[in-house]
Amino acid sequence: MASWQYAVDRFCCQYLQLEQDLDFPSADCLPLDVVQDAIFRRLFALGAVRHGPPVRYQVRTLKELVSRITASIDDWDEHAVSDNLMSALSGLLSTPLPAEAASARQRCYVTYRLSALARDPDEVGGGSAEVPDVTLLESRSLISAGGTTGLRTWEAALHLGQYLCANAAIVSGKRVLELGAGTGYLSILCAKHLSCASAVASDGSDDVVDHLADNLLLNGLRDASRVRPTTLKWGQALVGVDERPGNGGGPVDVVLGADITYDQSVLPALVATLLGLFELYPLVEVYISATQRNEETFEAFLDASRRKGLVVEDIEFPMPTRQRQQAPFYSGRVPIRLCGVSKAGRQP
């Protein structure tokens, strides 16, 4: 792949993921007609993106792109800014924009490309590599009006997703339960791309669970036997519940949880739920990913787990720096801890 193709692909993936700090192609690449044409065809041509970013984001990105192209041109007899890009910018600038406050509350499309699952061009009959993705409707504001953080995908889910992509056998053919599913990223990833037998995307917020249906539909997962959204309140008894975790009350093989240990007040209920799952499904495997914003909080989870006979073991899966990341992209400024949880004394 030519260097400009890698740069364009990286930029396009970041754009579709609504990254705020985009890696624009270098000043050496931007004047090239082939580079400008590739960006236009992939991002700004009519119908190029089925589920595009908000108009404000499109305008900001395209203005910055045109500005960088202009600054990179030394010889205007040899190079120019693409007419197609200028026309696209004019069209966006003429589009009425919603108020910023309304934009902040609006859910928007976010597409996460899964470079770890990219297929070689030779496998798909030549051409460019085939890169799977997950598209979600998210609220990009930090906390929604309902007080939940579950309407956007967080770094810990993306990191755990990368681990599963690299170790697909963990979920392939298995029945998966996701705790604190939020946008459903992990459940959708497992069902759409990692061949799990079924997935239950559970969350304690009814508002979050209601929104999951949109994301399942976006990813072609209308069939409830593949991914089933459900409300699951941590700490409540699981035994004897008709709609308990699992497909139709069936067994669960793998439990996943990302950023579910950030609130000390819910840790006793979370640990109680994990204990209940081990009682119901003694052979279940549990994987938890936690962004360590506050080390005291995770230590509180470790203490609560130890007191109840749970063993939490770190899994070695280094997080690449931002410069070394390929899609999806997520911040490397705060460490993410990946752990396996088991019941003390459980026989292998």
UniProtKB/TrEMBL annotation:
Pfam families: Methyltransf_16. One of its GO terms (cellular component) is cytoplasm. GO terms for molecular function: S-adenosylmethionine-dependent methyltransferase activity. PANTHER family: HEPATOCELLULAR CARCINOMA-ASSOCIATED ANTIGEN, PROTEIN-LYSINE N-METHYLTRANSFERASE EEF2KMT. This is FAM86A protein.
